[in-house]
Amino acid sequence: MITYKNESKDSLQSLESSMPVLAMCYDFDKTLTPDDMQAQGFIQSLNVDVNEFWQESNTLAKEHDMDNNLAYMYMMATKSYGKQFLTKEVLADYGSKVALYNGVSTWFERIRQYGLKQGVQIEHYIISSGLKEMIEGTEMAKNGAFKKIYASAFMFDDKGVAVWPAQAINYTNKTQFLFRIQKGVLDINDPGVNDYIRPEEQRVPFRNMIYIGDSDTDIPCMSLVNINGGHSIGVYDPDSKNKDKVYKMMQHHRIRYYASADYTDGSDLDTVVKQIIQKTAAYEALEQQYVRNKHEAES
Q1: Residue range 68-103, pLDDT digits in tens
Q2: Which residues of the chain fall below pLDDT 50?
């Protein structure tokens, strides 16, 4: 947190709470990390070829008219039998070893600090089809970078072993979490997400959302944010420099911007996000004036 001369911790918290909120939402696999998280140690520990694992998982889903994410979770659990106990600790350990794109480990706090200097409170959210338990094992998550992690997750028995899916998140149901963020109803079991909230009372209006993703699975979220005045950003791998997916998303009006998945200070992505933060600060100052005038005129 930035420090202000002669201000206490309580006054700093009060200052933050009065700021407009900008929610930054991220996919995880191939957005923050170059590959699927399960393919960076876990699948290999099962003595299974990575490509064969995904082929078998996709076949299983097709044969049983099954969600692809439920299929891979089933595969992770059943293929662990006799090899390792599938516990939160084991999954978190694999998560801690997941490779990250350049700058990711420091990105979240650095951007939060930049936001505070502009008078904007930045909140980071993960919305991923990957595994919550693995994401929680990353350095950023352990340091409290994320306001909330929405991801597929296991239910664990009294011995701490995964026995059933607790949550399976796919590309279409990802969008519900944007509405939860919008209304400040973050608990996945809270039906308040269906309540009507007047636009001026929404905690994070869509115009104050950034969604960062890499592929077709992010399109529903990107489109929802985009058409409601927010900012969708497509990222591509900085090593392969293959822009086919972001070109397609740009041509189909799914995203407003694209950049290399380089999260270092001064990168193209860093510059775009900072410009959005500056725009948010200016726009919200005007919006607050509008709300004050509106309420006075209606009273």
Answers
A1: 999 999 999 999 998 999 999 999 999 999 999 999
A2: 1-14
Q: What is the pLDDT of residue 91?
A: 97
SS (H, E, C) the chain: CCCCCCCCHHHHHHHHHCCCEEEEEECCECCCECCCHHHCCHHHHCCCCHHHHHHHHHHHHHHCCCCHHHHHHHHHHHCCCCCCCCEHHHHHHHHHCCCCCCCHHHHHHHHHHHHHHHCCEEEEEEEEEEEHHHHCCCHHHHCCCCCEEEEEEEEECCCCEEEEEEECCCCCCCHHHHHHHHHCCCCCCCHHHHCCCCHHHCCCCHHHEEEEECCHHHHHHHHHHHHCCCEEEEEECCCCCCCHHHHHHHHCCCCCEEEECCCCCCCHHHHHHHHHHHHHHHHHHHHHHHHHHHHHHHC
Indicate the pTM of the whole model: 0.91
pLDDT digits (tens, 9 = 90+) for 221-246: 999 999 999 999 999 999 999 999 99
